Protein 1
Amino acid sequence: MNDISVIEREFKELDAWRTAPEFWPALPAQAEGLIQRLRQAKRQLIGHSAGGREIFALEYGEKEPIDAGTDNLHSALSASLTPPDPTAIYPGSFYGMRRRRKPAVVFQGAIHGSELTGTVASLNLCWIIETGKDLRGKEWPRLRELARNSRIAIIPWLNMDGAMRSPWGQFSGMPSAAASCINLGVTREGAKLAYPAHKELFPIAPSGMAFMGTYFNDAGVNLQYDFCSLAREPETCAWMDYYLDERPDGVVVWHCNAGSLIGPPGYYLPQGYQLQEARIGGVVRARLQREGYVAGRMSWANLPGLGKPVIDQTTAVYHVCGAAPIMCELPAGCREYFFTLDDMLDIGLIVIEEILAYAHSDGLRPYELWEKVRKQTTKQEPSQK
Ligand SMILES: [Zn+2]
């Protein structure tokens, strides 16, 4: 299932995409040196993949404890019957009685192993937090300030099996047909799995694949839809455990396509969370347009899931840990929807900056204004800043 020669035979000359500049630490092997150089990050093991590989998070900022009595959001939500107020959705028994003083945000990369633009942006964010500059030497003073005043946790590769399966860590200018084979794979009979029809099979049979696409973990599971499985994969248990323990305000879920960016909001999210995600999408798109980036050009209407009663991993994040899930499809940069690596890194960092700015002003919980909350928490604890 790891035979990359079936792809190399079909698409000649893919060698150029095996390497990337130092500012593009996309694959675990390409990022190893950078991660070792980080001085302020706490590296936290959060679980193992189906293939036995370590999954880890890089954490910045103090973790503020929560005085919650239960790990079950839906039980806590059901603990009072009246009044029926759709804005009263933060039971203290789950979210804690005392508010944190800083926004807490998780950036989750590579649930699909070759969708790596968000991983690259997140690892550049580490360098910005530590040095003020991204890996190209470009300064991001506002982003640094926002990030250093937050609790940040970065999971570079949730699907470590998928990320380790392919030697190609960047797709700028690669024909989409080749990228699709790398993502989805080729069967032993030579058939290419096609998006989105491949989702009719869950899981796919690893033994039937000459090259199993990087979408899947070693058990052939697309972790995007594992939440409702009877026996969940270890990667799913890992993020569920970690997000419950972290109980962040928001989880940014990175994917890649032509660059449709934030959303669409999940069908099974509370209305406030759907509106929140749409508002953040507007903020991000407006900023990118001001900066001259043609992104967000794909219509949401063509994306599967919009209006369909689906619970994918993004929606599941809310139901497990109560955080605002923010799904972002960053560009992969393939030939038909081309972006340079430079532009894609800028786009990724701008998205992060706008989400953090939103977390520090409006706040990631719907129906609350974080600036107001912060004034109250500052009043509660005058000795602490
Ligand atoms: Zn994806």
Protein 2
Amino acid sequence: MQPESVIAMWVTLLLAGLGFFALADEFRRRRIGSDVSQDQVFRCVRCSSVYTDDAEVERSRCPQCGKTNEAVRF
Ligand SMILES: [Zn+2]
């Protein structure tokens, strides 16, 4: 194999690797963003436990003590 083609191969591999990592990072960021829009944050007024539940529900029961809480609005 010619030295030039070895360098070209390494450059191609390096670019492919960088492209893969950029793509994986983009997918991870998109998944976190969709999680935020789908879940609501609740904070229990009785035991101060913070938990999440579906965005459709207005009230959610605390998993720690069973108290029904309203969603935290930011
Ligand atoms: Zn609670």
